Amino acid sequence: MIRSSVAAMLSKDLRENGPNLMILVGATAVILMLMARTYDTSAYGQGSMAIVAAGIKSILPLCAAIVGNILVARELILKTRHFLTALPIHPWVMLVEKYALGLALVVVIGLVTIAVGLLHAGVGDDLDAPYVAGIGVRVIAISLLVWSIAFFVSLCGRLRLLLYVLLFVGYLILNKFDQVTGSFAPLRLLDSELLVYERDVMPWSDILVTVVLGIAISASGFALAWAREGTLIDTLAVPMTRIDITIVCFVLMTYSLVVAIAVNDVDELPMLPSATQMVQNETPDIYVYYEHEENRKEATSLLARLSTTLESISHNLGVDELPLLRIRYSANLFRDVQRLNVSSEVSLDAHIAGLSPMGMALVESVAVHGIFQQLTNNRAMYEPHHWVTDAQSWWWATRHLSGEQKQAVTDELLALASISVAIHGEVTSLIDQYDQIVDIRGAAAADALAYSALVFLESEIGEEGIYRLGRQFLTQPVKNNYLSSFIDARNSSRQRFNDATGLDFDQFSARWQQWLETVSAEPRIKTLVDSVPAAKISVQSDVEHNGYKRLVTQLVGEITPTQSKDGHCRLRHAKTGPTRNFVTLDGIEEVTISCATDGSPDRTRVPYATGDRAYVALYYENDLFSRPVQLGAQRVTIK
Amino acid sequence: MTALIRKELRQLLPIFALFAALTVIEFLANTLSSSFGFATWASDCSIGCEPGNRSYSVISVMFVSFITAYSLYPNEHDSGTINFLRAMPVSRLTIFKAKLVAGIIVVTGVAVIGYARWMLVVGANSSSLTGGLYPALTATFFFRDVIALTIYLAYGMWLSTMRTFGFVLIFASVVVLILLDRARLHSFMDPLELFRVEYAGETLVLPWAAIGFQCVLALIALWLAYRHWSHADSWGLSRQSSQKTGKLKTLGWLAAAFGLALLAGTQFAQKNPAETRYTGPVASLQTHYFRFVFPERAQAPARMLIRQADTLYEDVSASINAETEPVIRVDLTQTSEHFAGLARWKSFRMDISRPDTRIGHAFVLAHETVHVFQGTESDRGMRRHAHAVQFFTEGSAEYIAHQVIGGDSRRELDAVLASISVAGENFTFAELANGARVASKYDVTLLYGLGNLWTEALVDSCGADAIGDTIRSFRELELPFGISGENLWTRVLASIDCSLVDVNNRWQALMAAAAARSMYSFPAHGAATVEPRDNGSHLLRVEFDGDSQNYDDGRFSVRIVNDSAVSNEPDDHFNGQYSKSDKSLTFRIPAYAFTSKRFRYQVMWRHRNASVPFMYKTQSGSLP
Q1: Cβ contacts of B52 on chain A, cutoff 8 Å
Q2: Can you tell me the distance from the alpha carbon of B454 to that of B510, in angstroms, rounded to the nearest whole number?
Q3: Helix H or strand E encompassing B268
Q4: Smallest CA–CA distance from B19 into chain A, residue
Q5: Residue A181, pLDDT above cutoff 60
Q6: Which residues pair with A535 in a beta bridge?
Q7: What pLDDT is recorded for position B121?
Q8: Contacting A residues, span 77-116, partner chain B, CB-CB under 8 Å
Q9: CA distance B132 to B498
Q10: Burial environment of residue B263 by CB neighbours within 10 A (0 to 12, 13 to 18, 19 or more)
C-alpha cells in the first residue's frame, strides 16, 4: 500500500515537475561545463576537479533552493497540498517522497559536478577510482546537508527568501572568521583545497558530523511539517500580513545588530614589542626599544623626558591611568617621519638617533598625541578638537625642555606660524577649518599655529587654564556608539573652550593673531621669518605637443635673491581622488624647481592621465629650519 | 493608469518596507558600533568612490531590482489575480506600463532611502575638508544608481518570465561574462561597466556608452517581458489550457539561451586561451615521495628531474625540519606562459616544456615542494593571512630552493633587481607584509625577490631553524582576521623567540647592500604618451633617459594592468625598445589590451638570467 502510494506520488511529481527538474539538471550541467571551460582556459587553472569545489560551493545550494521551491514551497503557497491531503495517502508519505526525490536530485546534481570534472579531466590529472570515490562520498554528505537546509527553508513558505538571505549572510560571516570555518566540520569539508586536493586522508569524522547535522535539520523539517497537526506550514505559506512584515523586520534588525556587535567585538591586538634591548619606566608605563648599545643613551634620554611629561600630564590633567606607550627605534625611517599606532596601547616607530632638539620634540609630541588619541578613543582627532590636541601635544612636549632648547623649538614654531599667516593670511577658525589649514598650509604650520595659540592662551590665563582646556577636550573617552556621540556633542567646541578658559573663542582668536603679528616682529623670530620667501604656488596642467602631461607651476610672491640662493624649492605632487584629503595621499613624488619669481614658470612632466586629480605642494628648505616649510598647496585636474 | 500604479505600489509596499527596513537596520547597527559624525567620504567610500574601481553597489542594485521585478507579475499569475486586472477596461500594455512605473518608483524610493542614510551619516561630519557632502557628486552617483536600478529592473522583468530558472540564467550569464571578458569584450558591453568610477577632476564621469548600450538591451528585455506577460495566462488557467505549450515554450527559451551562452562562451574563450592542455600519451612514475605524470614525448627531461626528486624532497624537508611527510602529486603535462610551477595543497603543476635554463626544472620542483610543506607544516595556517604572509610564502620557497639547488648568480641578480626597484622609495616592512598593496603598486613578482632577502635576514638573525619554526608557528597562532602584517609578524617571530626589528634591520641592510652592488641604474622614467597607429595598435612612448650600455643584458617590457571586475586573469606584457637618442622607451600595444580609455601601466626590465624583473611603480595613462 505504502509502496504504491509512494509510486503514485512520485509519478505525480515527475509528471508535474519532471520537465522543469530535467531542465534544471541539464542547465546545471551546461553551466558547469561553461565554468569548467573557464577553468581550462584560465591562466591559473588547477586541474579538472577544481570545478567540483566551485560547483558544490556555488551551484549546488542554488539548485537545492530551486528544487525545494518546485517540490515543496510551491505546493504549499499555491495550496495544491490540500488536494493531495484529500487523497487516501498519508501526509507523511507525501513529505517523505518529496524529501527523497529532492535529495536524489540534489545528490545527482552534486554527482554531475564530479561528472563534468571527469569529462574535462586532462591526462595530467592522474585520476583513479579511490580518489574519485573519496570526492563522491564528500559530495554526497554535503548534498545531504544542503538539501536538508533547503527542505527545511522551503517548508517555511513565504519566509524562505528571508531565511536564505540570513543563511547566506551567516555563511559569509562564518567565512570571515576563518578560525570558525576551520573548526566547523561541514565548512572544513567544503574547504576548496581539502575537498578535491586531499587524496590521502579521508575526513570520516567531518563527513559523519555533516551527515548527522543533515539528518537533524531534516528531522526539524519534518517536525515543522508535523507541528500543529500540519497547519503551521500552511500558516507560513499564506501571504505576509503587515504584522508579519513587522516581525520579519524586527528579526532582521535583531540579527543585524547581533552580527554588528559580533563583528565589532574583535579587539584589535596592540602592537607587540620586538627588539633586543629596551629601557623601561613603570609608572607611567613606557618602553623604549632599541637594537644597538650605542642608541642606549638616546633611548634613556627620551624615556626620561617622556616619563616626566606623562607624569605631569597624569598629575595635572587628572588622568589616573595612562595607556602603555612603546617607542621603537626604527633606523630605516626618515628623521621627520613617525608611525603611530593607537589601540589599547600606543606604539610609535621613530628614528630617535642623532636628532636635533626640534626633532626630539617632534617625536615626543607625536607620542603625546597618541596618548591623547587613546584617552579619548580617537575623539581627539575630530576636527573641532584637533587643534587642541596638536597644540597640547607640542605644549607638553616642549614643557620640560631646557631653557636654550625650549627657546630654539619655540622660536621655530612661532616663526612657522608667522610665515603661514604672512603667506596665507589670517586664520579664519582653528575650530572649523583645521583640516583646510593642514591641507594648504601643511601639517607643520598647523601644529605651529595651534601651538602659538596655546602659548598666547597661557600668557592670558596661565598654566592652570591650559590644564583645564586639556581636561575639557582630551581626557574623556567617547564610546563608539551614536548615543555617546550625541552626549559628547551637546557641548560645542566653542562652548567647551569657553567653559575651560572663560574666554570667547572668536575674540580670543582675534587677539591671538594680533599677538602673533607682534611676536613675528621680534628679532629672533624675524630672522627666521625673513629667511623664508612669502610666496604661494600657482599650478596649472597642460599638455605638450607630443602628448606629455605637465604641471606648470609658478611662484607668486616675493623671493629675495638671498632666499633664492640659500634655500631650495621643492615641489611634491601625488595623484588624489576628488574626496581624498592630504593624509591619504600615497606615492608622493618630489622635484626641485627654480626658487625665483622671474615670471618664467616651471614645467614638470608628470605620470598622470587625463582627468586625474593631483595634489601639488610647494616646500622651501634652508638651514635655519629643521623641516621643509610648506609654502602652499593646490589641487589640479590633469588636462 | 494612475489608479493602476497606485494599486501596484500598494502591492509592492511590503517589498519596499523590507528594503527600507534593511537600510534602517544598517543604520541602527551603526548606532551601536560607530561614532556619529566620524564618517567621511574618504573613510566610508574608500572602495566605491576611488577612481578606476567599480562600485560594489552592483550587488545591492541587482538584489533590489530583481526582487522588485519578481514581485510584479509572477505572484499575480500564481494567485490568478491577473484575470481580474484583465477584466478591467484597460489594455494589457497599460497594465504592463503601470507595473513598470510602479517598479521604477519603488527602486528609486529604495535609492532615495539609501542616499538619505548616506547623507545623514556623512553629512553629520563637520570636518571642513573630508566631511560634509559633495552635492554634485552625490547627485551624480544617485542618478547613476537609479539608471542602473531601472536597467536591472527591466532585465528582472524579463527573467521573471522564466521564474526560478531566471536565477539560473543570471548565474549562467555571469560565467559567460567571465568568458567574454577573457576575450576582451568592449567595455561598454560589460553590464558592470555601469558602475565604473571615473572622474574628470571633481566630476563623476558617467559611462554613457555603457548606459546607452544597456538601455537598448533593457528595452529589448522589456519588450520580451511584455510579449510574454501579455500573452501568458494565469497559473491556474495555463494549467488547464496550454500546459504543454507553455512548458515547451519555456524549454525552447532555456535551450536557446543556454545554447547561445555555450556557443558564445566557447567561441570567445577559444580566441584567447591562456593555457594549452596536453592531450597526447602520458606516462607516470612513482617515487618514494612523489607521483609524477608526464608527457611521453618529454620522457628525457622528466626522468632527469624525477631522478633527483626524492633527494630534493629530503633536502627541503631537512631545511625546515619538517614534521610531516606528504606524498606529492606532480603534473608535468601543463604548458603555461604565465607560470613555471603552481602548487595546491599536496599537488602541483609544472611546465616541463620550458627550456631548462633560466629557471631550472629542479629549482621549480624544489620551490613548489616548499609550498606543499608550508601547507602541511602549518596545517594551512599560512593561508589564513595570505596577503600578510605572501612575501614569506614565496620568499622562503625561493630561499630554500636556492639553498638546495644552488644558482647563486641568479639569486644575486634577483636580489639586486628587487632591491633597486624599491631603492629610494622608503619601502618598509609594513608594505612588504601587505601583498595586495605590493601587487597593486608594483607587481607580485617583487615579493619573490624581497621575500627571499627577508628570509635570508630571518636566518641570519634567528638561526637556521627559524624558517621551519616560523611556518609551524602558524599552526597554533590564532590571530584575528585583518590583523596588520607588522603586528602579525611581530607575534609570529615572538613565538619563536625572535625579534622582528632585528630581522627587519638585517633585511634593510641586505637590501641596501644588494642595491649598492648593482651594475644597473634605472633613473625614474617620465610621463607617457599614447599614439594610435594605422593598424589599430597603439604606440606607448615613455620618457626615459638611462645608460644604454647596461640594458643589453635584458629587455624592457610594459605591463598593462587588467582592471576587469569579473575575471582574475594575468596582465598583458609587451616588449619594447629603448632609444637613447629619443630618450624614450616605446612599446607597440594591440588595441585589445586597453579595455577602457583610462589604463594603468608599469614599465619593467627583465634580465635574461633573472626571475625577478626590475620594476617601476604602476602609473596611470589615458588614450588620446
Answers
A1: none
A2: 8
A3: helix B243-271
A4: A249
A5: no
A6: A557
A7: 83
A8: 77-78
A9: 47
A10: exposed
- Mean pLDDT, residues A476-481 taken together: 86
Torsion of CA A64, A70, A71, A74, to 10 degrees: 130
Helices in B426-519 by DSSP H: which ranges? 429-432, 435-441, 446-462, 466-476, 485-495, 500-517
Q: Check residue B272 and give its pLDDT.
A: 46
Q: Are A97 and A8 in contact (CB under 8 A)?
A: no
Candidates A24, A575, A611; nearest CB to B622: A611
Q: Which residue in the set A78, A248, A481 is minimally distant from B31, CB to CB?
A: A481
Residue B62 corresponds to which amino acid? M
CB contacts under 8 A, A 341-370 vs B, are: none
Q: Which of B32, B275, B441 sits opposite A481 (nearest CB)?
A: B32
pLDDT at B465: 94
Write down the pLDDT at residue B270.
46
As a whole number, mean pLDDT of residues A213-240 equals: 84
Q: Which residues of A touch B621 (CB under 8 A)?
A: 607, 609
- Residue A143: which of A70, A205, A68 has the closest Cα? A68
Distance CA(A396)–CA(A385), nearest Å, equals: 17
Domains and CATH numbers, chain A: 2-264 (no CATH), 534-637 (2.60.40.10)
Look up the ipTM and state it: 0.74
Q: Does the pLDDT at position A213 exceed 90? A: yes
pLDDT tens digits for range A22-57: 888 888 888 888 778 777 766 666 677 888 888 898
CA A22/CA B330 separation, integer angstroms: 38
CB contact under 8 A, B51 and A577: yes
Mean pLDDT over the full length of chain A:
84
φ, ψ for residue B73 (rounded to 5)?
-105, -45
DSSP letter for A72, please: I
Strands B290-295 and B328-331: parallel
Angle at B113 between CA B109 and CA B118, to 5 degrees: 145
Report whether A548 contacts B527 (CB < 8 A): yes
Given a contact cutoff of 8 angstroms between Cβ atoms, the answer to whether B51 and B199 are in contact is yes
Grid coordinates given for A284: 607611567
Contact B624 A199 (CB under 8 A): no
A274 interface with B at CB cutoff 8 Å: yes
CB count in 10 Å sphere of residue A590:
12
Residues of A whose CB is below 8 A from B380: 182, 191, 193
Q: Which residue's entry shows cell 528531522?
A: A219
**Domains and their CATH numbers in chain B:** 2-271 (no CATH), 282-517 (1.10.390.10), 528-622 (2.60.40)
E strand residue ranges, B195-300: 198-200, 203-205, 275-276, 282-286, 290-295
Chain centroid offset of residue B575 CA: 24
Q: Do B481 and A47 touch (CB under 8 A)?
A: no
Give the separation between CA A343 and CA A532, rounded to whole angstroms: 39
Between chains, do A126 and B331 touch, taking CB under 8 Å as contact?
A: yes
Q: Is B500 exposed, middle or buried, given 0-12, 13-18 or 19+ CB atoms closer than 10 A?
A: buried
* Cα–Cα nearest to B159, from B89, B207, B218, B235: B218
Helix B92-123 vs helix B135-159: crossing angle, to nearest 10: 140
What sign results for the dihedral spanned by CA atoms A511, A517, A522, A527? positive
Nearest to A134 by CA among A75, A176, A197: A197
Backbone angles phi, psi at B89, to 5 degrees: -80, 55
Contact A30 B262 (CB under 8 A): yes
Q: Nearest CA to B561 among B549, B580, B550, B574?
A: B574
Nearby residues of B46 by Cβ (< 8 Å), 6 or more positions away? none
Residue A179 touches chain B, beta carbons under 8 Å: yes
